[in-house]
Design a protein that fits this description.
By secondary structure, this protein is of the alpha+beta class. It folds into three domains: about 110 residues, Penicillin Amidohydrolase, domain 1, CATH 1.10.439; about 180 residues, Aminohydrolase, N-terminal nucleophile (Ntn) domain (Glutamine Phosphoribosylpyrophosphate, subunit 1, domain 1), CATH 3.60.20; about 110 residues, Orthogonal Bundle (Penicillin amidase (Acylase) alpha subunit, N-terminal domain), CATH 1.10.1400.10. The chain has a nine-stranded mixed sheet with strand order 11-10-9-8-7-6-2-1-22, covered by helices on one side. A six-stranded antiparallel sheet has the order 12-3-4-19-20-21, with helices on one face. It is globular and about 75 Å long.
Length: about 475
């Protein structure tokens, strides 16, 4: 321990004295205020260790080591990040093995593999009500994974740099997120990235223009596709896809979700920020109207069928009709229950039988007044309770929404285990406006108030929190903790 402390003090002293602040908002999100990017990375390391120590160490130590042949600015960031982690370990644990920049370099090559796809959307200025780019950055991840996104906001005064976004624990700055100039989303990849991953990622997130982004992309270190929006009104897909009617979508693993999102986006000419937030959390069910049309023909006299044909076609948590539709679809049996549209081979008699079976379940099996959120819940390992949730991907019932949630059946309850994990919606303007959510919460410590608070208080309601981007005055009205570090 004495050797670790000596190394730590030596490394910190080498950087020079800098006071760094970690301000945590009501949901425990760290907003780091520093003079230098290295100082911000130091605090980011400390904060990640405080919130996700076990996952952080598994990520870094499990990745092995590689020669940290990084450009000097990124090398300093990696060194400072490790110094912040090691300081926390020395203060709060008996773990004497320090993490090193070589571990950070090695893990960074796997960092994009923790993103299990993305539902990113870029709305160009011609389709935005304010004439600014609106970016929906929506990476998917397991909610109990070590690589689940960690949210952080970095404010670097000497470099006039503001960064907001997420990265898996073990990376010192956001990989997916935005500055005042650019918004960067990545689709994830199963391929290991190159040795210069950290440099390319840093160049991307700190770029001031699309030209700088494209220069960074030419490094060719990060596999997968990036979507980029700028404050100058540009939207760009690194795969070469041309905007369709002023909109870009990240290609999705579930084509029906992509089709549903496109359908929503063409439903009106211009999009205000608030409506873009609605799209990010949309629970509209793909092709549900085709089933309603069939039910009108088959059983217009049945009250249960009339309830379904009058349904909004949204699987909101409080919707009794959405639950009734789910029960009706599953009562059909496979393969018809998984169909997005009624097959021609499906007989009227089978539809009537499924309606009767679903109605019987509502009346005799489920609690009185049960709704979609009674059955479809969100939680995480170690949580004391679950919360109702709307939307998601339910293959057995052929129910797909733009809002991606992966479920596992647990008796009568269908529990969400991953999917939409770190949604950010930002309008890039002279004063960027942004909201975000991190599911289930910032911390991995069950005793923390931020273990699953965002799942309970935000995700279950299909909403997000303010990020207070570049607005310290407003942030300070909503603090849960404040800490100063000397770097």
């Amino acid at each position: 321990m004495r050797v670790l402390l000596l190394c730590l003090l030596t490394s910190v002293g080498a950087f020079g004295a800098e006071t760094v602040e970690i301000l945590r908002d009501n949901f425990g999100t760290p907003h780091i205020f520093a003079h230098t990017s290295a100082g911000a990375a130091y605090a980011a390391g400390y904060a990640q260790a405080e919130d996700r120590k076990d996952a952080l160490l598994r990520n870094l130590r499990g990745a092995g080591t590689e020669p940290a042949l990084l450009a000097p600015p990124v090398q300093k960031i990696a060194e400072a990040f490790c110094a912040g982690i090691n300081r926390y370990l020395s203060e709060h644990t008996s773990d004497a093995a320090p993490v090193t920049p070589a571990m950070v370099a090695a893990f960074s090559r796997r960092a994009f593999m923790t993103v299990h796809g993305s539902n990113d959307v870029l709305i160009g200025p011609a389709r935005s009500s304010t004439g600014n780019v609106i970016a929906i950055l929506d990476p998917l991840s397991g909610w109990n994974d070590d690589g689940r996104p960690y949210e952080m906001h970095l404010h670097v005064s000497d470099e006039q740099l503001e960064l907001s976004g997420v990265a898996p624990p073990g990376v010192p700055f956001p990989l997916i997120g935005h500055s005042a100039a650019v918004a960067v989303g990545w689709g994830g990849s199963t391929e290991r990235a190159g040795p210069g991953t950290l440099e390319e990622a840093w160049a991307m997130i700190t770029a001031h223009s699309l030209a700088e982004v494209q220069t960074a992309l030419r490094m060719g270190q990060i596999p997968g596709t990036a979507l980029v929006g700028t404050s100058r009104g540009e939207i760009y897909d690194s795969s070469g896809t041309v905007p369709d009617q002023g909109i870009l979508l990240q290609r999705r693993s579930v084509p029906q979700s992509e089709a549903m999102t496109r359908q929503l986006l063409v439903s009106q000419n211009t999009w205000p920020f608030g409506r873009a937030v609605d799209v990010a959390f949309s629970t509209a069910v793909y092709k549900a109207e085709t089933w309603q049309a069939r039910l009108v023909k088959v059983a217009p006299e049945l009250p249960f069928a009339r309830m379904l044909t009058g349904w909004s076609r949204r699987s909101d948590a409080v919707s009794r009709e959405a639950l009734a539709f789910y029960l009706f679809k599953t009562a059909l049996g496979q393969p018809e229950s998984a169909a997005f549209e009624p097959p021609d081979s499906l007989s009227d008699n089978r539809i009537r039988a499924a309606l009767r079976k679903a109605q019987d379940q509502v009346e005799t099996v489920l609690p009185y007044g049960a709704d979609y959120g009674t059955v479809f819940r969100v939680s995480r390992e170690g949580a004391l309770q679950s919360s109702p949730v709307g939307g998601g991907i339910v293959p057995e019932a052929g129910m797909i929404t733009p809002r991606a949630i992966r479920f596992e059946r647990r008796g009568i309850v269908v529990m969400g285990t991953g999917g939409q994990a770190a949604t950010q919606i930002v309008e890039l303007s002279s004063a960027p406006h942004a909201v975000s959510i991190l599911v289930p919460g910032e911390s991995d410590r069950p005793g923390s108030g931020h273990f699953d608070d965002q799942a309970r208080e935000l995700f279950s309601k299909g909403t997000a929190k303010l990020t207070y981007f570049a607005d310290r005055k407003e942030l300070e009205k909503h603090l849960s903790a404040k800490k100063e570090l000397i770097f």
